[in-house]
Amino acid sequence: MQNRNYIIMGRTKRKRARSKYPRILNETLIRLQLWLSENNWKNESKLKIKLFNETGRGIASKKSITPNDILISIPASSLITFAQVKISLPSATKVTIHEALAMFLIVEKMKGVKSLWSEYLQSLPEEVPLLPWLATPEEIDSYPADFKLAIDRPLSDYACFLKKACQLIGDVYEPLFPWAFAMVNTRAVYIDHDRVSTDSNSNLLLIDKPSMALCPFLDMFNHHYLAKTEAGLVEHDKKFYYELKSLNGYSKNEQIFISYGPHDNLKLLMEYGFFIPGNVYDTVRFRLEEILKELNFSLDDNRYKFIKDHNFHHNLHLGYAGVSYNLKIVLFSGYTEDMKQLNMVAFSDSYPEDFLINYLTKCTAILLNYKKNSCLKELNTLTNLNQLSNCARNVVEYIRYRLLFVEELKVIFNKNCKS
Ligand SMILES: C[S@@+](CC[C@H](N)C(=O)[O-])C[C@H]1O[C@@H](n2cnc3c(N)ncnc32)[C@H](O)[C@@H]1O
After folding, report:
1. Vertex 212: Cα angle to 232 and 184 (nearest 5)
2. CA-CA to 176 of 20 to 30 Å: which in 48, 185, 339, 374?
3. 245: nearest Cα among 234, 236, 261
4. Residue in 406, 320, 414, 317 with CA at minimum distance from that of residue 329
5. What is the C-alpha to C-alpha distance for residues 389 and 393, in angstroms, rounded to an integer?
6. Model confidence pLDDT, tens digit, residues 339-385
7. Cα 223 to middle of ligand 1, angstroms
8. Which of 80, 123, 186 best tests ligand 1's pocket when mutated (most atoms within 8 Å of CB)?
């Protein structure tokens, strides 16, 4: 039943593996695979964990993968879900499933090899991912405005977690708090919990639905914007598995990527601590106030109310896909004072040619120039600080990239308006 091929590899193979990977890591990962196979995981697609230059640790296969192949099928019993963590949850204070999983990681990690999950815990990276909200308050204070805006939620979520974790598991574990919170943030998968459990107690202990889980081995897949995957719980012979199907093909030994979602680079950086140059979903975002100021729009109450009432002030961005739906509407509100026309155009997405050819082109050029200047200022502010933390250095790298991206968009938008 068990697949033990990986522990009886020959001497040459062993030597090769060692030279590519620190021995201790190799042993940890072998133990993880052994533990999973004892829990009925069959590595049918012959996956192996490897170090890659571009991404760090990730997954490849010893055989080629064709589109629609099942990459991995992890038995639900090996997942860390609400069912596992609820036993150790005190009923005094309700927590989110994110907080519950993070506290579980901390408590189990402190048990060391005595933990039933020690193989999984040892496979987790020791370093905390470079999430921008983990920088120092002084660095965060010097972040660009869109960062500060995007950082608000993770910062307040973490502050909430900190308070509850100190109260429920004790502040002696505090050094592990950022690590555990970030592990869940960057590695948890979504599950339809109702499918595997009929537990109705979750609402007594949890604030939200128990729809997050940690999935050993599967959480070693890195993200790529071109990867297409389907994931979810499936039932085979009355047992549940978390299954991942790749819609792309991969050659033997090539890194296999999955998709964490069609995220732009700011979202990837905020949620996972990395960004990918050339990401086709990347965007340059704007706030309504920036647009009104930079384009000298003085909207009357009617137009301003129209934008706010219909939530057109969200998702204002430029990217490889062009001008976002809402940004076009906001720009059109600067083009016309006629409310009837604004209403009609906004909901039909069909704009006058003069607006598209002349006005829109002029506005996007101004906005991109403004963004370029802001990036330069933002870089200056951050790099003027002494001794940046790794998280803030990562933000600096991203702003440097954003500058290049803005330049690239300027060329693309310029070319598009000429053609
Ligand atoms: C689910 S884990 C993936 C496995 C992880 N590389 C590991 O060694 O455990 C998600 C984390 O992997 C890293 N990651 C994922 N995709 C990446 C990519 N395309 N480039 C760089 N880092 C990536 C980020 O640190 C992210 O927070």
Report:
1. 120
2. 48
3. 234
4. 317
5. 6
6. 999 999 999 999 999 999 999 999 999 999 999 999 999 999 999 99
7. 7
8. 186
Q: 214-248 b/e with 16+ CB inside 10 Å = b?
A: bbbbbbbbbbbbebebebebeeeeeebbbbbbbeb
Instruction: Write down the ipTM of this complex.
Output: 0.99
Sketch out the chain's domains with CATH numbers: 77-272 (3.90.1410.10), 283-418 (no CATH)
Residues with CB under 6 A from ligand 1: 55-58, 125, 129, 186-187, 219-224, 272-274, 276
Compute the distance from residue 292 Cα to the ligand 1 centre, in Å.
38
Task: Specify the 3-state DSSP secondary structure of 60.
Answer: strand
| The predicted structure's pLDDT at residue 92 | 72
DSSP string, 13-33: HHHHHHHHS-HHHHHHHHHHH
For the record, the structure tokens of 77 come out as 């019993």
Q: Is residue 55 a contact partner of residue 31, using CB atoms and an 8 Å limit?
A: no
Mapping DSSP to helix (H, G, I), strand (E, B) and coil, where does residue 1 land? coil
Buried b (16+ CB within 10 A) or exposed e, 259-275: bbeebbbbbbbbbbbbb
| Ligand 1 centroid distance, CA of 222 (Å) | 5
The band of 193, judged by pLDDT with boundaries at 50, 70 and 90, is confident
Helix (H, G, I), strand (E, B) or coil at 38: helix
Structure tokens belonging to residue 354: 């003069």
Running DSSP on this structure, what letter comes out for residue 112?
A: G
Residue with CA closest to ligand 1 atom 13 = 222
> What one-letter code names the amino acid at 140?
I
pLDDT of residue 24: 64
- Give the span between the Cα atoms of 381 and 141, in whole angstroms: 10
Q: Which atom of ligand 1 is nearest to the CA of 182?
A: 27
User: CB neighbours (10 Å) of residue 380?
Assistant: 11
